[in-house]
Write a structure and sequence with these properties.
single chain, mainly alpha, 0% strand
Length: 178
């Protein structure tokens, strides 16, 4: 499947916009986690946890899934392919892992901390909610770097496809010159 130029550009804009949004949301979660962990005020900590819960409940899942889906559509609809270039493959797996970690680890942790803060229960290990956003932001930065630099070359499948394409072109050239 090959995307036509207007569709490819539209999906690319969506992909970049939601990817940047995901990074911004994660940075906001990190700021709120640091605030909750360092404040001396239980009210400020509760407000931070409530805000984190709002971000997590309404934004994390749709933005993460839209990033994953738009990246998948782009990779399958462009010459880059999903399994042709190592950097695309790496981005796919990192996005899949960060999406899964956000949904299955970060969300429940935020919800649990928010419920405890709202109930007035003391929270232990308040810094643990800062770990997820730090790891995610590192992954996003790495994915951004490899998107720009495009390192590592072709995968084995990509090399086979390129060799096959060159053989087809060579055979066509031979027929035309004969």
């Amino acid at each position: 499947m090959k995307l036509h130029r207007p569709a490819r550009r539209a999906i690319l804009v969506v992909h970049v916009a939601v990817s940047v949004s995901w990074a911004g949301i994660t940075l906001g979660l990190l700021a709120l986690a640091v605030t909750a962990a360092t404040t001396g005020s239980p009210d400020a900590a509760e407000a931070s946890y409530r805000s984190m819960k709002l971000f997590a409940d309404w934004l994390i899942v749709p933005v993460a899934l839209l990033t994953l889906v738009s990246g998948l559509v782009l990779s399958l609809g462009t010459p880059w392919g999903l399994a042709r270039h190592r950097w695309v493959y790496a981005k796919f797996w990192l996005t899949l892992v960060t999406t899964g970690l956000s949904i299955f680890l970060l969300l429940p942790g935020i919800n649990e901390s928010a419920e405890q803060a709202i109930a007035g229960q003391p929270l232990e290990g308040t810094w643990k909610l800062a770990i997820g956003p730090c790891v995610s932001l590192s992954a996003y930065l790495f994915m951004t770097a490899i998107s720009v630099l495009k390192p590592w070359g072709l995968t084995r499948r990509g090399r086979k496809q390129r060799a096959s394409l060159h053989k087809q072109v060579d055979a066509r050239d031979m027929r035309q010159t004969a």
